[in-house]
Amino acid sequence: MVLRSPRPLMATQAALTDGQASRLLEKYEESGAGWFWETGIDGSLNYLSSKVSRAMAGSGISPKSLTDLVDNEASLAEEASERSLSFYLTSRLPFEGLVLKSKGQHDVWWSITGEPSHDEVGRFRGFVGFALDLTDQKNSEIKLLQLARFDSLTNLANRDTMRQALENSIMSSVHRKHRCSTMILDLDRFKFVNDTFGHLVGDQLLKSVSERLVKIIAGRGQVGRLGGDEFQIVFADICEQDRLSSIAIDIIHSLSQPYLIQSHLVTIGTSIGIAISDYDQRSAIDMVRDADLALYSAKAAGRGAYRFFATEMHEQALLRQQIEEDMRRAIERGEFHLVYQPVVHTVTGHLVGFEALVRWTHPTQGIISPGIFIPIAEESGIITELGEWVLRNACLEASKWPENISVAVNISPVQFSSQSLPSLAASAIAYAGISANRLELEITEGALLNDTAKTRSAITSLKMLGVKISLDDFGTGFSSLGYLKSIPFDKIKIDQSFVKGATVPGNNNVHIIKAIVGLAGDLGMVTTAEGVETEDQLALIRELGCTLIQGYIYGRPMDAAAALERTKSETAIADGYMVDRAERRRIIRAGRIITDSANEAVRMRNLSRTGAMVETDLKLQVDDHVWLEIGMPAPLEAVVRWTENGRAGVKFMQAINLDEVLQTKSKSEFSTFVPQYLSQQSVAQYADKERLTPKALLRR
To answer: Please, what CATH class does the domain formed by 18-140 belong to?
Structure first.
C-alpha cells in the first residue's frame, strides 16, 4: 500500500522504522476508529483492513470493489453520496469525507476519503485512502432528526411533521383534482386522570391511546400527536363524509374502552373535529383551524362526539371573541350588577338568605345571558377578576341585611383552584364587616375533579375562617360519595333537574331526592332544593324533609333594593302554579293553522311537548279542533283550551318530541336569525339557541 510521506520530523524526533509504522497502523485499524483501503487500475480492492474484511465476511459479503462495501438502499442523501463515489472512482478524481452506510452491517456509517495513486512516470495505478467510523455521530444525528420530527413519548409524528404531511396532501389533492381531510382529537377527562393518578400513568395512557389510534387507522392515514392530549390524523385519499364518520365512530368507541395501567382501571373518551379540503386556496393552517372549530362544536355537544366543520362555526368563534373583548371593558365600565334570589326555610317559611347572581347589561345589546358570558369568562381567565368583584359586592350588600340573613356566592372551578381564594374571602368579609358564617361559597362537583392537597388545603382554610361551603348541583356532574365523606360540606344543593317533574306519576326523581336528603341528614348536612316553582313541588319537597327551598315560587332574582326590602319581612309567601307544567320553549315559528272551514297563517310561541300558544286572526272557540302545519311530516292535531286577544292555547292530541319539532327548521331560515350580537331576546329564539348555545361557546 502506498502512503504519503510524513511531515519532516523535528530534529529531536526519531524517524519511525517500518516495523514501528506497521505496528501503529495495525493498532489503529484494530481499534475500529478507522480503516485503510487500496484499489487497482480496474477498481478491484488490493487492500482492505482486516477488521472490515472480517465484518463483511460475517455478513456473507465478499467485496470485490470499494462500492461493494456501501449500501445502495440508504436514504436519498446517502444514495447521492454513493453515486458520487462511483463517479470519483471512474473519473479518477480525489474525494474527501463522503458519508456512506455500510452494507450488511446494522447502522454502521463511514466517512471515506481517497486519492488516485500514480507511479514514477505518472501512470495511474488505482486509489488509496482511508475511512473514519461515523456510526456514533450518525446515530446522534438520527436521534436529533427523530426528536425534530417525532413525539418523544409516543413516537408518533409531531406537530411540524403533521403540518408538512397535511400541506403535502393538499398539494397532491389539488393536482389530482381530489380532496383530503384531517381530524383533530382531544381526550375527554385526561386531565382528571393525570392529576388523580400522576404523570406516569398519564404518559402510559397517552402511549396506549397512540397504539389504539395507529391500529384503527391501519395505514389509511398518518397519525400524530400535537402535544398534551391532542392528536391529529391526516388522510391524503379519504374525503367522503360517510367513510370519515365511520372512522370517527370507531375511534370514539375504541378510545372509550377501559385501560388497565399500573393496576388502575382508567376510562376516558374523545371528541373529534373533522375538516375536508375543498377546491380552494386553503392552507394546512386553515384546515387545522377549521378542524379545531369543529372539535369545539363536538365538545359542546356533550363530548364523545364528532363534528364536521361548517362555515357558521367561524361566526360563533368571532362572536365569542367579541363577547370576550366586550366583557373585559364591561368590568371597567361597571356594566355588571348583582341580583339576589331568596332562600327560604321549608318548615317555617322564614327567609334565611339570598344567592347572589351576576348579570350583565350591555350598553347596546341589552341583557347578556349568564349562560353565554360565564363559560367565556372562565375560559379566558376573566372570571378571576369578575369573581372577586362579585364576592366583595355581595358581602357589602349583605352588611345591610339583618344578622340572620346569609349570602351565597358561586365560585367557579377556576377561582377555586386559586390559592388566593381563602385570603380573598377573608378580605371581603373584613371589609364588609360581616360575620364569616354569613358567607356561603357554592362550588360544583367540577371544581373537585382535581382533588388535590391544594384543594383540601383551601377548603380547610375557608372552614377555619368560619365560611360555609355548599356543594352545588349535586348529582349532575362526576358524582362521588367520596367527596361527601372527606370534605366537610355544610350544605348539599339538589339540582333543579331532579325537582322538575318529580311530582309527575311514575317519575323516579322523587326517589333520588329522598336518597340525597337522607344521606345529607346522616352526614349532618343541610339540603336546599333548587328550582321549586309550583305548589305541588313545594309540598313534595316539604314531605321529603328538605331543609331549604330556592325557586321562583318564593321569588325570582331581584335587584339589591328589592332584596333589602324583602329582608324586612320575616316570612316569605309562596306564589306559583298549583301543579307542575310541561317544559316550555320560547320560540317564534311561522306556520299554518287549519280548521274545518279555514286555512290561515299562524305564529306559534311557548311550545311544550303537550301544547303551544299561538297567534292567529282566526276567531277560535274553546274546544275547537285544529291542525298545525309547522314543517313536520304531518300536521299536528290539537284542541283549543283558551283564547284571548288574538292568542290561543292549544293542547296537542298526542305529545310531541320537542327536539324533533325544533330541528325541522330549514337551513335557509337560519340566516335570518344570525344577530350581530346575543341579547336576552335573541337567546330565546330557537335559531340562536341552536347555533349560539352557551355550550357551543365552551372551549375544548
So the answer is: alpha beta
